[in-house]
Amino acid sequence: MAYMTAVAPVPWWPPPPELAHAGLLVASSPAGYPEPQTLPFLFAPLPPPPPAGCPLLPPPAPIVIQLQPHPSLLAEVDHRRSSSLVQFLKDEGAVLSPEDENKREKVIRELKKIVMHWANAVAYEQSVPQGLATATVLTYGSYTLGAHGPESDIDLLCLGPCIATLQYHFFVVLRQILQGRPEVSEVHTVEKAKVPLMRFRFTGIAVDLTYAQLPVIDALKAINTFSPQLLQKIDTRSWRSLSGVRVNEQIVQLVPNAEKFQTLLRCIKLWARKRGLHCHYLGFFAGIHLAILAAYVCRKFPDASVSGLFAVFFQTFAHWPWQVPVSLHDELTTCLHSEGRLMPIVMPCTPPEFCASTVTKGSLKKIREELTRGYVLTRSIQISVCTIIWK
After folding, report:
1. Which of 74, 85, 365, 390 has the largest count of CB atoms under 10 Å?
2. What global pTM score does this model have?
3. 32 inside domain
């Protein structure tokens, strides 16, 4: 039992009888000082002194009582942490304003008109009756997944008819059409990439435009089917260009709650940027890696809150045995390509493939260190989850 010592040099044992009965501890003052007020602490009567000659026993060990927080308290803390995460994303500019969203939608609408005009020009050049040849654009990447921000580019796939070739009609004819538009600037081509593309700015917004040549004349009608027979006739480069669209469609269908997934993916992307991990060219995460990891957590914990999903993300992948691929499908799959063996992440498409990866042993070590750091911090109920992203 703990005792409070008087502030003046008054013998603490034995106490005056009147104090022992009252249970009050009174401090007396040296001469010349006013008598202090009685301290407002109540104690049980003091125990009798030990008999003479009895050895003094050591004080008992302290009793540690572990208190479990009430479920309602945990729910309130979880709700506040989720709200703070959403607000933090807005404060950091990771969420687009309605005006910016409308601006991007207008860019996509205009590019659909441009590629349709381009298909008509190609048909006229090859003496194909007007109106038969069509083309369109499809979105993929962060825009389709709903996790794009103000600095995000728009990933677009141009689907063209069988009469429009990649090397000439896409990289020459369509490029000339784009360069003739006043809204378009900084056009350049990346023809030798694994997935060839054109990069440009449309009303200031960065656009990455890839191309898939379909084995039909009416590309606009074909996108409503994408039958296996049609896909089997597509060349290798067009197949690779289509993979982004097909993977994104699968992710959107597999996640149980789109809004939670989008918020989680925004949080993870912001965390990766702040911690220096969101750069595919330096051996770290690409956008598709983070999207699949976020979707994996959402599928495993469909009822968790955003804050809970963010914590589970670190808990899951800080301890992940990276010789085991991360897959959104429960069954084991045999991937066609051996890319990304150090951090194998399987794209949810048929046939399954590993995500392209440039991860090295050094960058993987850094990734694991940051995941472990996030796991340690998210275990504390007293630490704001925004701290994991920012500091």
Report:
1. 85
2. 0.76
3. no
